[in-house]
Amino acid sequence: MTTHPLVDRFQVLGQAMADALGTTGSDASPRFSRIAAEQLECFLPKLRGFSLEDILSAALTTKAEQLDVESHFGDPPITWFMGERFCIESYVWNDNSTNVHDHAFAGAWTTLVGQSLHRQYRFEADEKITPDFELGRLFLQNGERLVPGMVRQITPSDQFIHDLYHLDRPSITLIIRTCRLDHPLRGQRHYIGHEQHALALKTFDRPPMEILQRRLLKASLQDSEATFLHLFQALLEQEDFEVITRLAAKTGFLLSHKQLGDCLRLLENRWPLQGHYVSEALLHQRQLATMINLRHRRTDTQDRLLLGLLRCPSTREDLLEQVRTLAETEDPAAWIFQRFEQWAEEGELLQLTPTQREALRGILEGQPARNDEILDRFTLQNEPLLQVLGTP
Ligand SMILES: [Fe+2]
User: What is the CA(295)–ligand 1 centre distance, in A?
Assistant: First the structure.
């Protein structure tokens, strides 16, 4: 099979990166990320206009050693260039998205195809349980819409915490990143929760026994709710707070509301103060998982943008402001209402009676509730999709 021209282009990019990097400097320093960003910017004109088909066909002809082909980060992840200190990878995104996370590597990435909602966060720790597990609070710092041609840098610490929510299906990102760092750093962490209660938790590279425990819990879900709860209870008696939290975080979003509630009650009984952080964070995680699943049913970019934005803001004003900026509209309330109306008309995601429709418009426009609207407003604000509208 002849090599696809795109493969050659990535080889040239890899060689240029190796030359620019030289043999000195720490890969964990900002220098690595800056050079990676410069190289991507330089190569952007040669990386435009590719489709998913181009990328997939080209990948068939790559000879590069694959960094982690089993990874779920990207569907699939493709390694195009494997150097001594770094690699070049692209990730295909359809309905998958990233969790909120930081990095154990440095680098820079760009969007090749499609577009994504990119948000950065700040974590404030309240209590360090272990080096891999902290309790604290998670704050949204900013959001932007990434389109082809934009390059962003990654620094390997909790100073850069972010998530990507892909708006187009497919979206494809390209990254130059370190494969290994030359000094010990704690591993990548996931962040779960919100401004009052959040967890920072290392979830990668777990010991085989913990992976087995997680898989046993998942398998028990196929049996009955009681089996799952018995297994969870048995684990609760033998494992520490960190392991239990990680197991609950990895399985919680698969549970029914009742099952999750039962698990969290057990966990809070055992560790009352700290367990409350876990409960709040995992209930939030479950709500986000519901929103991500809803996105599978919409392919329109604007619909997916609204679903992405509904996941995170904590107030109605915050939502309107983000829609104003990211959807580039002068009238965010009307923009949102139009989408809700369309979903309701198509019987997708949302059901609205005529009076609920009017109540929804009133909420979005910040109108005080009329007496005859109070019940409808209460019902709307208890819809998981519309919960954010409950806080002005
Ligand atoms: Fe990332």
Answer: 21
**Dist CA 173 CA 180 (whole Å):** 20
Per-residue pLDDT tens digits for 156-210? 888 899 999 999 988 999 999 998 654 445 578 999 999 899 999 988 778 999 9
Residue 136 alpha carbon to ligand 1 centre in Å? 20
* Surface-to-core class of residue 33, CB atoms within 10 Å of its CB (0-12 exposed, 13-18 middle, 19+ buried): buried
Six-digit token pair at 37? 């960003």
Cα 109 to ligand 1 centroid, rounded to whole Å: 9
CA 312-378-317 angle, 5° bins: 35
The pLDDT tens digits of the residues spanning 118-140 come to: 999 999 999 999 989 999 999 99
| Residue located via tokens 């910017």 | 41
User: How many angstroms does the Cα of residue 56 sit away from the middle of ligand 1?
Assistant: 22
* Closest to 121 measured CA to CA, from 65, 189, 175: 189
Output the CA 196–ligand 1 centroid distance in Å: 23
Kindly give the distance from the C-alpha atom of residue 102 to the centroid of ligand 1, in angstroms, as a whole number. 6
DSSP code, position 268:
H
Whole-angstrom distance, CA of residue 116 vs CA of residue 301: 10
- Please give the domain boundaries of the chain with CATH numbers for all domains: 5-193 (2.60.120.10), 208-293 (no CATH), 313-390 (no CATH)
3-state class (DSSP) for residue 256: coil
Q: Exposed/middle/buried for 366, CB within 10 Å: 0-12, 13-18, 19+?
A: exposed
- C-alpha triplet 156, 167, 196: angle, nearest 5°: 55
pLDDT, residue 154, reads 94
